[in-house]
Amino acid sequence: MKKLISALLLLLIVSNKLLAQDNLLSLIEKDSVAQKEHIKNAFKSTRVINGQSMELLGRGVLDVRILHRFGEVSSGANNLFGLDQANMRFGFDYGILNSLSAGIGRSNVGKEWDGFLKFRPVWQSKGPGAFPFSIILVSGITVSSQPWSDTTRKNYFSSRMGFYSEIIIGRKFSEEFSLQLSPIFVHRNIVPLVTDKNDVYALGIGTRLKLSKRVAFVADYHYIIQGLDKTIYKDPLSLGFDIETGGHVFQLHFSNATGMNEKAFITGTTGSWAKGEIRFGFNLSRVFTISNRNKL
């Protein structure tokens, strides 16, 4: 009888221990499932080609960017199909927070300086409280340093300035495909033609299709809704390939746009794809972690 009671007590103790372990494991599994996960790498760069992408730099990360655009391919063999000409933008972007970046750059097109702030109030995620897409706000300013062509009138510094604001709504649908829409508003304090409007509205579309581990097809297109004479100005369209090489993202592309900031390529594109007025170019991005993330 004593042996039976001892055996039952031992069985009860072992059962309680096994039950406690099962409960602990279930809590651990529940916690791991319950974690909210943000979706990353919808695009491999903070820009699709011309326009901003839904990606932001990490906190404490500096991105040194060189955007290069040659002359028109249709200029012929005598001009080496545009390679004899070159335009570029050199810039620095910095991740202040994981969802807040700032950037500054200078283009030789119009001898124009530009700066912007980029903020992500909503980040695509999965798990509890998941949201199906990201929302990014971008606001920028441009200042031309080119000498005035008309010195007979009184020119103001404010006349050199332009402004733009946009909302990017994007989603990474899978590891292979991402898509974003970006309504954008551009204001110019002074316009080149009397028929031009100071305010221009456009809708941007950007996409990325992964082809291999290190190569992806990218495209961005901006449809001009209002504010420009479409017989003179064209919708900017760019097609290209992203190539990842370690800390670099190297991009080869073709575009009918010359300008390389939002104000420039939205309001200043006159080249036509149908007439072969397109330009070969490349974008080069190199990132550096210049702040200790743990300290931040």
TrEMBL record:
* Keyword Signal recorded: yes
Keywords, ordered alphabetically: Signal
Q: Which superkingdom?
A: Bacteria
Q: Which residues form the DUF5777 domain?
A: 43-288
Which region is the signal sequence? 1-20
Q: Report the protein name in the record.
A: DUF5777 domain-containing protein
